[in-house]
Amino acid sequence: RRVVVLISGNGSNLQALIDAQSYDELGGEIVAVISNQVDAHGLKRAKDAGIDAVALPHREYESRDAFDGALIKVIERHEPDLVVLAGFMRILSPRFVARFAGRLLNIHPSLLPAYTGLNTHARVLADGALEHGASVHFVTDELDGGPVAIQAALKVEPGDDEETLKRKIHAREHLIYPIAVRWFLEGRLKLDEEGHATLDGTK
Ligand code: GRF
User: Fold this and answer.
1) Binding positions for N(1)-(5-phospho-beta-D-ribosyl)glycinamide (predicted)?
2) Residue 160 to residues 122, 169, 176: CA-CA distances in angstroms?
3) Whole-structure pTM over 0.90, yes or no?
4) Which of these, 101, 141, 184, 203, is most buried using a 10 Å CB contact count?
5) How far is 110 from 117, CA to CA, in rounded Å?
C-alpha cells in the first residue's frame, strides 16, 4: 500500500509516520513527500529516510486551481492508496478533494468539531476550556469539517500556556496519526457512502 504525505513545515508528524514505517507498523510505504514550502524541514526528514522529496512552491502558480492541478499530477505519478496531510498549510480546492475523496486524511490540533481553523491552543486557553486534543479526520470540502477517524484528548492544566499545549498535543498527534494510517491501509478505516467514518464497519 502506497502513501503520499503533504507537508509545509517541520514535519514532526511525518517523522512519526516514517518511524512507524521503520518499525513495520504503518501498514504501507511512504512513497513520496511533497511540500509547498521549499525550505520545509520535513523535506530533509524525507530525504534522510530515503523517500522521494518534492518541493512544489505554490507561489510559482498563478492561481489556486493551477497549483492544485500541478499537485494532483505529482501525487498521481506516485499512485497512492492514501494521501496524508501532515501540517500542509494550504486549503485545497473542491476539485482536489473530490479527486482523492475517501483516501485523504488530515490531522488537526483540536477535538473536532471544536476549534476548526488556526491558533487552536490560544483559543482553547482564552475560552478556559477544560479539555483539548488532536483529531485525525477525512478531508471534505468543509475546512477541518470532515468525519473524525481518531482523537486523543487531554485535560488543560492550570499552568498550561500555548507552548505546553502545543508540545502535549504534538506528542498525542504522533501517537494517533500512525494508528489512523495503519487502520486505513489495512482496510479497517473507511469513509462510507453516507460520509461517515467507519472502523471495522462500525460508525
Ligand atoms: C500539527 O499540529 C497539525 O495538527 C497541524 O499542523 C501541525 C504540523 O506539525 N495540522 P508538524 O509539521 O507535523 O510538526
Assistant:
1) 11-13
2) 11, 12, 22
3) yes
4) 184
5) 9
Q: Render pLDDT for 139-148 as a digit per residue (tens, 0 to 9).
A: 999 889 999 9
Q: Give me the DSSP letters along 122-162.
A: HHHHHHT-SEEEEEEEE--SSTT-SPEEEEEEEEPPTT--H
Give yes or no for residue 87 CB within 6 A of ligand 1: yes
* Domain boundaries 2-190, corresponding CATH code: 3.40.50.170
ipTM over 0.90: yes
Would you kindly state where each structural domain of the chain is located, as residue ranges? 2-190
Pair 86, 35: CB distance under 8 Å: no
pLDDT digits 0-9 by tens, 149-167: 999 999 999 999 999 999 9
Span from the CA of 114 to the centroid of ligand 1 (angstroms): 17
Q: Running along the chain, 203 residues long, what does each successive block of 10 average in pLDDT? A: 98 98 98 98 98 96 94 98 97 94 97 97 98 98 93 97 98 98 98 96 92
